[in-house]
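Hi support team,

I submitted a single chain yesterday and got back a structure, but I'm not sure I'm reading the token output correctly. Could someone confirm the output below corresponds to the sequence I sent? I've pasted both exactly as they appear in my results page.

Thanks,
R.
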Amino acid sequence: MYEVLERETLAPGLVLLRIRAPQVALKAKPGQFIIVRADEFAERIPLSLADWDEESVTVIVQDVGVSTRKLCALTRGDLIFNLAGPLGASSRIEKCGTVAVVSGCFGSGPGYALAKALKEAGSRVIYIVEARNRDWAFWLDRIEGVSDRLTVTCNDGSAEAHNATGPLQQILRSERIDRVYAIGCTFMMMEISKATEPFGIPTRVSLMPLMVDGTGMCGACRCSVGGEVKFGCVDGPEFDGHKVDWSLLIERMRSYLEDEMMALDLWERENWHRALERKKALH
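Hi R., thanks for writing in. Yes, this is the structure output for that exact sequence:
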């Protein structure tokens, strides 16, 4: 069992969990992830590492289904049934001139860890946040502290730009960028990869396909990169964004969408009292 040391609601449907896991934290590196189960009946959920210290790891959980809702409902002192990690190949951290890091949704958590490591390695870091609205733009103070320049975009039009693609293209036209990283929702990473390809800028994306065991045994997370079959859990999660077969990835990620919606609807019907308790806790 793994104790929740801290819980914070960052935005509607977006929760920070700091979990006691010293052995995992000892080996954690930027770009890696953990797999957790909230209870014995929950799915195994991959979560990118956002931060860590000597005794704990921090993740950002987006409430999108039954298992993530169970995680988001946890409070300080609650126990997580099991946790495995760190998993996946870590990002290659090196001094490489100027890099642009683009994050969206939950991605600003692991994006911060990546930007911090790149900055410490001697790179100049330009950071672009893409958020649904101002409420979803979290950790801006942390990100600003590890960036040479920070731009915030909001899909609802409350910022100067609606998404990260426009500001990134302006930067690519005006100065030399040696590498681009994108982490967050699949559609955003696909659009960033399309935007950088005409410029020939190496672009790394962090994929989170469906996973089960996280060790390459089940094959659930297979994706096509450069015409070859790759496993997101062991070959990734970071890949060349210009070589990812985005259409296939999106199709596979939607494989169980109807089943997930039915499961969530059933769980909410059976656990309506938890929703009320959570609502009261927020107020």
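A quick pointer for reading it: The two ends are 29 Å apart (CA to CA). Let us know if anything else looks off.

Best,
Support desk
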